[in-house]
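ok so I'm stuck.
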Amino acid sequence: MKKIFYFAFACALALGGASCSDDSSSEVNEWSAIYVGIERPKLGVSTLTLNINHPTAEVEAKASVPVTVKLSRPATQDITATLAMESDCEEAWTFETLEVVIPAGQITATTTLNGDWSYATDVVSSQTWTTKITVAAATPSNITRLSTNLNELTIVVNKEPVDLKNVSLETPSGNELTNRSSWTVTCNGTETDTLTDGDAGSYMYVYNNLEVVVDLGKEVTVTGFKTTNQWGDAYAPDKVSIYTSSDGSSWSLQGSDIELPAAGDFDFSFTKSVTCRYLRIYATGQNCLFSEIYIYGE
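replied:
not stuck anymore, here's the structure
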């Protein structure tokens, strides 16, 4: 038994000596290899979670994530690691570099992954994106192996739903767009001129929800609008959501579930003017009645 033990111990010493001194060996094995992986953000943690604000013109949703490549031990020559990314939001991420060089004698080197979610301006509901970073290759390949246990950094980005409001209940700036003859107005999908006929005595009334879509005929810089209601607050909606669009298909939310005071006539002012062709007003409440709509612009 002693001879067997001594023999095994001698082999271990020989292998250990080779793994510490011979980085240029042409035959890499599990004992002599230098393992290449990604350093975890914290001990035992391989997932990094980021929470971002809703990106608007005033609020930027950006983040910088350091990605550190780590060796199992120093090498006597430079090691180059090539990173790979798998993501459902690739358009948000930009690597400082995908080629990370760990200098001889060191065990780590860091690059930066920069995130920009400005493309998600129109995403107003909650959203989660997942990105996985790995080392795809390492050179020199004759002395390196990719780690099987420590070669993945997962980044989870959460965007909470935002009560976005580019609208205030104030008198809109600019001038009234008086030429309403080129407009097309639909109420719950039915075309009508009731809201633009200049007759305060005519009105569009719906029990519960009323959707009004105004096609201005061309793109206009809109600063806000007004609605009138000859029957007062008894037939006024409780809340409105306001959208704008350039093509009538892709809509940008300007204000969500805006609570209205007890009144018949309402002023809506865009905090930041919007260039659009279409204006959509979605009113909710037990009674929804509009008599006229007046739109203001620059």
